[in-house]
Amino acid sequence: MTSADRTGQQGSTAGGGVSERQARQVAEAARETQWHKPSFGKELFLGRFRLDLVHPHPRGDAASVERGEEFLARLRRFCETEMDGPTIERDGLIPDQVVKGLRELGAFGMKIDTAYGGVGLSQVYYNKALMLAASVHPSVGAMLSAHQSIGVPQPLKMFGTEEQKRTWLPRCARNLTAFLLTEPDVGSDPARMQATATPTDDGYLLDGVKLWTTNGVVADLVVVMAQVPKTADRRGGITAFVVEADSPGITVENRNAFMGLRGIENGVTRFHQVKVPAANRIGKEGQGLKIALSTLNIGRLSLPAVSTGSAKWCAKIAREWSGQRVQWGRPVGKHEAVSGKLAFITATAYGLEAMLELSSEMADEERNDIRIEAALAKLYASEMGWLVADELVQIRGGRGFETADSLAARGERGVPAEQVLRDQRINRIFEGSTEIMHLLIAREAVDTHLSVAGDIIDPEADFNRKARAVIGAGKFYARWLPTLVAGKGQLATSFAEFGPLAKHLRYVERASRRLARSTFYGMSRWQAKLETRQRFLGRIVDIGAELFAMSASCVRAQRDPEGGTAVELADAFCQQARVRSEELFTRLWTNSDDSDRTLARRVLEDRYTWVEEGVLDPSIEGPWIAEQAIGPSTKENVHRPV
Ligand SMILES: Cc1cc2nc3c(=O)[nH]c(=O)nc-3n(C[C@H](O)[C@H](O)[C@H](O)COP(=O)(O)OP(=O)(O)OC[C@H]3O[C@@H](n4cnc5c(N)ncnc54)[C@H](O)[C@@H]3O)c2cc1C
Known about the structure:
By secondary structure, this protein is an alpha+beta fold. 53% of the residues lie in helices and 9% in strands. A hairpin with a 2-residue loop joins strand 9 and strand 10 (330-331).
């Protein structure tokens, strides 16, 4: 039974054919339900602080460290001598010679095994490389990660046959690829997918329009998600295909422009009767979404890498500017309002890197299931990275709002603070928006409750099934609830080996039990409706993220104390994270959720449109809506492989 069944949400089919219930069913069917390995994150949400799963901090083996360091040194040299961030920003393009240079360096095959012509980096070093390249210009990070974290190589690596790997991975090691899921009507909700793959004698015919395809303009190969129609003898469903980007019938119509990431080659790709051999299908028919989501389980770590890199740069600029800019007789960093921001930026840069390193080392170690940790890292790093960038702009004052070129033209140092804010913003939207990440992680956090409560909360279950479920749940909760009452976090001597950080780990242990109790209260209070309490669940997830970040910070400081300064930073980060967690705990039960829900419903009923009076709406009406229809393109093909 799916959670959608349990909630009994019939839902409307607003705007075209797919109800909320169907959307949930599609998402649920694509969800990986099995847990074969332990999960620190899952245990944390259940009130069990399993420090043993993350401590001692895992470390890569000597060979992967050596390979990684050698590659990083070459990449750094290339970035320093051949790449110029301001030029990319100014021209809105990554120059062809940079793309070619990165190819020669092996940067397109960082995550591809050496057996298939790649560099074979570990996740840890792949992330370090992304962080480095993105620090020159985030568009370069986006290009590399759209190709390797979600593009053709990763799904092939995880789900391709040996023959498929031998055919395509060596090409992927030298050429860019793209991942094509989103459509004009499909963002967070793949159930609405309209692109089709119609079976033929020897393969499929692809038709449809794919939107916002990063690298789509320059890709050699693309991975496309399309619906195979269901028939009496075909399971059908969303299916993944590797497609040659220059296949007849493909047109790349537009190079989209954005508030940030101005160098990415992102387009609208139209498929009209594109022939795809059966050998190009990855996995089985109907497995496409599962493949996409599984790919993201680890692929998601590239965004925290880029966000962390950005936070580290913000820490540098914030330190330099706060110390150097004097107003009212003191460096601005010595005025308390600014010093608080400086402390936040620096501690957060440390905390984000700790979370990233721990998740990446765990991904390489393969001892734990890290899907929750990677999702938490994506969610947390994209949100905190944004706050950090915003605070940097504030510390820089008017110069924070001025472009780097304009600053330089006046003879000042061209610090691109406003650019970092623009570039960071998308991280909260793509590869799983914050709202969707909340739902995805919350689904795992409440999974045990849903499995246990099962028929109790299923509106379609009859009395006998409910009665049996009550007995089963009673037994589970009778065993589980008492474990949430007391724990190591209450003993002043626990985690003593962590010295000054022990108190924070004790807090995490206590907070983890409190978090599980809160989830249980929510479950008891709202039962089947809990899944619709998105803001409550979002706070539960955000507390989990803070606790994971605190754990990672302490464990990292214990591994690399950096002469005690890492311990100081971990301590500062944990103090800030505790304040945020406590606020979130309070807001679980003290909030305006109910009145906001009423207000939002009324807003959608146009009750307050008078609030919008007195201003003009500068939006441009484009003809594009009419052009979304599937059919042959009449536009020029802007596809330009490098
Ligand atoms: C620069 C850029 C690059 C991109 N690159 C790619 C790419 O390479 N390949 C690709 O396939 N796609 C790509 N995308 C698409 C991106 O992944 C989507 O924008 C993202 O999935 C969100 O979809 P949407 O924009 O349609 O928002 P929508 O799904 O329409 O959502 C709108 C808002 O509603 C929220 N929301 C939606 N559903 C729910 C729900 N059930 N509960 C609560 N809140 C909800 C969302 O979080 C969001 O805030 C890219 C987008 C951009 C801007």
